[in-house]
Amino acid sequence: xxxxxxxxxxxxxxxxxxxxxxxxADENFKARLLADPAAVLSxxxxxxxxxxxxxxxxxxxxxxxxxxxxxxxxxxxxESEARVxxxxxxxxxxxx
Length: 96
Description:
Blueprint: H1 3-8, H2 12-25, H3 27-35, H4 37-43, H5 79-89
Helix pairs in contact: 2-3, 3-4
């Protein structure tokens, strides 16, 4: 196994990066990813738990999708606590 493949064996982020690169390079692969993301991820070694739906959205120069994650479990989160929790999971916005 190559060093690059070996490094990504248990690294979902590297696997996702390879999927993105392939989608950029191959329109047919991108169409499959958009149509059936669970199958494509599974083929790449990323297992999707039963009952979890996936949707892949493509950003464009004029449309950027932001993901609103579910709130922390337990409910009753104060706004200041919610901000701290959100900062720990939210990626920086640097797409425009």
